[in-house]
Amino acid sequence: MNINIQYEPVIGLEVHVQLKTQTKIFCGCRTDFGAPANSQICPVCLGLPGVLPVLNKIALKYAIKVGLALNCSIGELIRFDRKHYYYPDLPKNFQISQYELPVAKNGYLEISGNGNVKKIGIRRAHLEEDAGKLIHTNELTFIDYNRTGIPLLEIVTEPDIFSPEEAYEYLTTLKGIISYLDVSDCDMEKGSLRCDANISLRPKWTKQLGVKTEIKNLNSFKAVRDALTFEIKRQKELLEAEETIEQETRLWDEKKQRTFAMRSKEEAKDYRYFPEPDIPPVIITNQLLDEIRASIPELPKARMERFMREFNLNYADARQLTLEKNIADYAEERLKAYPKKDKKTVANWLIGPLTQEANQRGKNLSEIPVSADALCELIDLVENAKISNLAAKSVLTEMIDTGKNALTIVKEKNLIQISDESTLTKEVEQVLQENPQIILEYKKGKTNSIMFLVGQVMKKTNGKANPKLVQDMLRRRLENA
């Protein structure tokens, strides 16, 4: 058994992005999600005899836009090909895709991890038509052709990824870029963003790739990471036992947290590609490229760097607030509204309490109805010691539930913080009398025990005491006792 060999994983990802055009890639059928089954189909997307496909220009522009954002070379001449493969939910039994002359190739995407920046090569990004959807019951299989022909952009990496964590980071970064470009809703639950992962293992000192498996049925980035982690373990055990790894397609079982074999893996020759005779080659002009390039907005990396520069945020905070465009827009409005130069406090509220409220409500942060002015007012009440941090969080919840501003809620609930020593003296003395053991611990050097006493005073004042003032008062009493 080769138990002393150290292996490294080599991973390549294929991401399929549904482009959010109003009509399909080769016909005029609608692309609305959730429409009644088989209500958005026509002879073209059903592949009936005698029909001719016509390329959707918007889908082509969206594909070029993604290619440019991923630092790719855009083909001067692009061509569509027929990919022969039996799809039960693609009725003409071939898929119109691209092979030799794709929209984009030879690009890269930068990811960050452990303080380092790494380039992941983009081998190609090509357009194709999506297949339909199979709905299985115990006895029957139904086919919904509505999805058939929706424009799909497949983005294929080089085998430059060497861990499940890097794969997760790549997918997160890619999704952010696509959302900023506004070419897809990137909703994995709707199937708008899907990922297949290719993985092999090799001894660390070699460059030759091992036998790869492809993992399908990955419906979240977490599933990609978990499936790759399992597959690394499975392949490592086979190699150490000197058993053969089969080149195959495997499915991920989310419940059992394992992969299982689906079929042997096809290669390009198995698809019998040839040029699509019904769609002429397309010439990409410099004028079109300039037009599309001018439409590309500030992308996540540039916006993150600007947040760090303009708002004095650290890398982690700036990145979290700029990964998704709608969150970045929401955050920027509130950061700009805050009058002080140091915006860290606003970032803390956005990343902390506001994000927690969003998660608890099953919403995106950008959907939380707290305006920039309302948030600034709440932060101002805390910073001027009018209310405690603890009280502020309950005020925030009520602001979201009722739409009232912070000051109104504070007055209605009598939450004004007590910051007067004479008012707090009675509670401080009571707590000291009730906790002689804690006093002894403090005098023996366990200075952190004072925080228990602070908590007791906060309880007696229903959370309205100024905790910093209480701590100062307790410390003076303990040190003078």
For the termini, the CA-CA separation is: 71 Å
Mean pLDDT value: 92
Strands in their spatial order, largest beta sheet: 2-6-7-10-1-11-12-13-14
Apparent shape: elongated
Helix proportion range? 25-40%
Structurally, the number of domains stands at 3
Query: Counting H and I runs of at least 4 residues, what is the number of helices?
Result: 15
Unreliable spans: none
The total strand number stands at: 16
**How does the major sheet shape up?**
9 strands, mixed
Tell me the strand percentage band: 15-25%
Q: Evaluate the radius of gyration.
A: 29 Å
Structural class: alpha+beta
Would you mind describing this structure in some detail?
This protein has a nine-stranded mixed β-sheet with strand order 2-6-7-10-1-11-12-13-14. The chain is α+β, with helices and mostly antiparallel strands. It has helices at residues 57-69, 164-181, 221-240, 286-294, 300-311, 315-322, 325-337, 344-360, 372-383, 389-402, 406-412, 421-434, 436-443, 450-460, 467-480; strands spanning 7-18, 73-74, 77-78, 81-84, 94-97, 104-113, 116-129, 133-136, 141-144, 151-157, 193-203, 213-218, 248-253, 258-264, 274-275, 282-283. Helices cover 40% and strands 20% of the residues. The radius of gyration is 29 Å and the shape is elongated. It folds into three domains: 7-292, no CATH class; 298-368; 421-480, Arc Repressor Mutant, subunit A. It has 15 helices and 16 strands. α1 packs across α4 and α5 (300-311) crosses α6 (315-322). The model has no long low-confidence stretch (mean pLDDT 92).
